[in-house]
Amino acid sequence: MFAARSLPRALNGARAFSTSPAHSLARMQIIGRLADQPELTPTSTGREMVRYALGVKSGPKNDNGERQTSWFRVASFAEGPGRDVLLNLPKGTLLYLEADARMDTFQGQDGSTQTRLNLVQRNFEALSRPQNRSDSDRSAAEEPSSGLGAS
Length: 151
Prior knowledge:
By secondary structure, this protein is of the alpha+beta class.
């Protein structure tokens, strides 16, 4: 009986669980390796942000025994100890990232219209650091064989 009464509201698009307006939401969870050590950069408004890139390998291996790498650029506005930890992570660190995602369209220098995925860090966790020099010299996107990657 309860489900029968709720059905017409659902078909009309009403949200029975909230009176607030619907908001678009795009989030990503990524496990990948740092392409380089994160760096602190100023924004045009004078605020500081941390920028870094994550490499994620996925798909089947090609003839050279390598998988395709996807690169994700990330901005972080974290402050305090979280920012300090992020800035001290070395290249090759395996990182779990939760981020807000947004597609931005802009005019390139050549006048063409370009679209870019922008990720703003919400949360991160360092899963493992490179053990020695040979680990950090490997491809930054090289991952364990867990099969985890962009979701």
